[in-house]
Write a structure and sequence with these properties.
Layout: H1 6-17, E1 31-32, E2 35-36, H2 37-43, H3 50-54, H4 58-70, H5 82-93, H6 95-105, H7 115-123, H8 126-142, H9 147-180, H10 196-219, H11 224-260
Antiparallel strand pairs: 1-2
Length: 272
């Protein structure tokens, strides 16, 4: 299960939802960070106006998403990748529908994610769940009367969610396999922990910060070019962080290999 996926999933949701909008064809009306006026009134401020939605802070949106979407769908208890796919579905089409479809994927009775449904989802193949969920989601969106207006963006969003969710599921599967059968150090060579989780977390945190900063700038009315520049700047920093981690790992491997090679002298700490 993936109890640490919320921040990465939220960053992706915010990147898709963007800042404030009030499209005449969108039944949600005034919306900011993907939170509609109706939801803001329901979860934050009962007498909120469109101006209140426009002034919404990203911290408020994050709290709403955590309590009323992520937690409501019990995403902490779901397999990695599928948690994000279901969360995004709930944000886009409502948690009630997302929960009902998730139950239907494993033949669970009822329309709520109870313990039995969660157990069934946990025992199923997460990658197949993601594929089936995204297929159903796209088919549902195609049936909506607003498809001619928003269909192109929805189709791209589902495609991107599918790809990212499958990548998360594959990474979790590889991590689980690696934890069960850790590779043994090569003869005469020291083993260096590569700390790949920390590397991914650092780069992911930077990207998440970039998505949130870009969304805030967009909400504040910044020009599209400025918003894009923010996103690109954070992406560049994330890449630089990744490269630095890779370089540092290689140096550590070389250093340990030199100390523990067949002809290397014992280090003072070895006690030899």
């Amino acid at each position: 299960m993936a109890k640490a996926s919320f921040e990465a999933a939220l960053a992706r949701v915010l990147a898709h939802e963007g800042g404030y909008s009030n499209h005449p064809s969108d039944p949600g009306g005034p919306t900011n960070f993907g939170i509609t006026l109706a939801d803001y009134r329901k979860y934050a401020k009962p007498n909120a106006t469109a101006a209140d939605v426009r002034a919404m802070k990203v911290e408020e949106a994050k709290a709403i998403y955590r309590a009323h979407y992520w937690d409501a769908l019990r995403c902490d208890d779901l397999p990695a990748g599928f948690d994000y796919a279901l969360f995004d579905y709930g944000v886009n089409s409502g948690t009630a529908r997302a929960a009902r479809i998730a139950c239907s994927l494993v033949g669970a009775r009822g329309h709520t994610l109870d313990d039995a449904a969660i157990a069934a989802l946990g025992a199923a193949d997460s990658m197949q769940l993601i594929e089936r969920l995204c297929d159903e989601r796209l088919a549902f969106l195609r049936r909506l009367k607003t498809w001619p207006v928003f269909g192109r963006g929805w189709s791209r969003r589902v495609s991107e969610v599918r790809a990212a969710a499958l990548a998360m599921a594959r990474a979790a599967r590889a991590s689980a396999a690696g934890a069960q059968t850790p590779p043994a150090p090569a003869p005469g060579k020291g083993h260096v922990p590569l700390a790949r989780g920390a590397q991914r977390a650092s780069a992911g945190a930077i990207m998440a910060g970039g998505a949130i900063a870009a969304a805030q700038a967009h909400s504040a009315g910044a020009p599209a070019g400025f918003v894009a520049a923010i996103a690109l700047a954070f992406a560049a920093v994330a890449v630089a962080a990744w490269v630095f981690w890779s370089w540092r790992r290689r140096r550590r491997q070389v250093a340990v290999g030199a100390r523990t090679g067949p002809e290397a002298e014992p280090s003072p700490a070895s006690g030899v």
